[in-house]
UniProtKB/TrEMBL annotation:
Keywords: Disulfide bond, Hydrolase, Serine esterase, Signal. This is Cutinase cut2. Belongs to the cutinase family. Residues 1-31 form the signal peptide. One of its GO terms (molecular function) is carboxylic ester hydrolase activity. PROSITE patterns: PROKAR_LIPOPROTEIN. It comes from Mycobacterium kiyosense. The lineage of its organism: Bacteria, Bacillati, Actinomycetota, Actinomycetes, Mycobacteriales. SUPFAM superfamilies: alpha/beta-Hydrolases.
Length: 197
């Protein structure tokens, strides 16, 4: 079978157009993966990987308070006694999002040990300028109360009544997740965050 010269020319003219089609189609996929808001949350001590019970409750409540699409990132750290690796991971993730998704508003958060992770991340781990991508910080059961001054006006630091970790209480069960979720403190924080978006 032999192709006439016109068929060969048409094939050569169309081939370069087809070879660029995947590159053109791939561009919108990158933009589509950038949410309007992303919650970057560090779970509490000994909770399984992810954002933990308080982080889940915060995201759920926030979704009911804004129409913006919300992404979720669980800080990658062992959640045992160390906060350093978590603060580094939180910082690196926020920097990556600021570069790849500059219009995404970041919400930092943490419960218990995770709140200390978020505190530490705000102190020099997140470079100047990148902090402008952080809309709000929501902390629960925070034993350090040490968020950096650049974040003070956009931080809510919740402490359940009787919690001995973040307050002067002596009721250890007050530090557990249900004290924050069932008391409305998480919902209150979500309202604060929604007001900062």
């Amino acid at each position: 079978m032999r192709l006439d010269p016109f068929a060969r020319l048409t094939g050569f003219a169309i081939f370069p157009l087809l070879s660029f089609t995947p590159m053109i189609a791939a561009a919108p996929a990158v933009a589509a993966s950038c949410p309007g808001v992303e919650v970057v949350f560090a779970r509490g001590r000994e909770e399984p990987p992810g954002v933990g019970a308080v982080g889940d409750a915060l995201v759920s409540s926030l979704r009911g308070k804004t129409s913006l699409p919300i992404g979720v990132y669980g800080v990658n750290y062992p959640a045992n006694i160390s906060v350093d690796s978590g603060a580094n991971d939180m910082s690196q993730h926020v920097q990556s999002m600021a570069k790849g998704c500059p219009n995404t508003r970041e919400v930092l958060g943490g419960y218990s040990l995770g709140a200390e992770v978020a505190d530490l991340a705000t102190w020099g781990r997140i470079p100047p300028g990148v902090d402008q991508h952080v809309a709000a910080v929501a902390l629960f059961g925070n034993g350090t109360h040490g968020v950096a001054p650049a974040y003070a006006g956009k931080t809510i630091d919740q402490c359940a009544q009787g919690d001995p970790i973040c307050g002067k209480g002596t009721n250890w069960p007050s530090h557990l997740q249900p004290s924050y979720i069932d008391s409305g403190l998480v919902d209150q924080a979500a309202g604060f965050v929604a007001g900062k978006l």
